[in-house]
Write a structure and sequence with these properties.
Rossmann fold, Conserved Hypothetical Protein Ylqf, Chain: A, domain 2, 11 helices, 2 domains, 40% helix, 285 residues, alpha/beta, elongated
Amino acid sequence: MSEDKFNINWYPGHMTKAKRMMQEDIKLVDLVIELVDARIPLSSRNPDIDTIGKNKSRLILLNKSDLADERYNDKWVKFFEEQGAYVVKINARSGAGIKQINNVIEKACKAKIERDRARGIKNRPVRAMVVGIPNVGKSTFINSYAGKACAKTGNKPGVTKGKQWIKLNKNLELLDTPGILWPKFEDQMVGLRLALIGSINDNILNIEELAVELLKFLHLNYEGIIANRYGIEENEDALINLENIARVRGCLLKGNELDYSKASFILLDEFRNGKIGKITLEFSE
């Protein structure tokens, strides 16, 4: 991927308010549960959350791990564990990995639970703040974990606008928070990766350029995957690959001109839904 064309800076006003709210509420919780997208685990972490939750136990959930390359999922687990976090690979939509979480929370909060017992405090629930950037699957995770629809879900960034406490059982309460990005992407590659997985509104992006960047990355790192999916002869030139995808999928305008925009949307949609294959966009080493 090349970063020279991309300068993504997207920070709606409600995100400033959400960050302030998190800074106020962090003192109420014992644990920060952070969802990241397994396809871009580092780029889908908000660095503000490290600062806000620096003195709290941390659990990182590699969500959408079913869409990511399993070789790299394992490497990312190791990477975050070496930083002192607890890590679980999950697929919030299907519920895969969800059952492991209770045991991991007990381990992560063992010191807090023992401290309560020593003070004679019994049955005080662990309180956890659930955080993550837009469209990473927080609401879907909460609903899957709770076994009921207690948080709104949607496939557009910014569905959760305000905070809400959710009592899962007598031992655990979750504080849901709105997804927040950060005001400026210092590394434009981070912005590009976020755009590719759908964490930035497509309406403010150049979809054709985004598709070309994805095709470049796939040719370099997953050679043959585009040929297999679309039945085309893969070319080193990403634009030629996009043109061939447009022809194969019948993306044509009047006069048989290629509809680059339609082909780009098809490519991005099929990448985001895992139809092209299990793909990780960034690597831990």
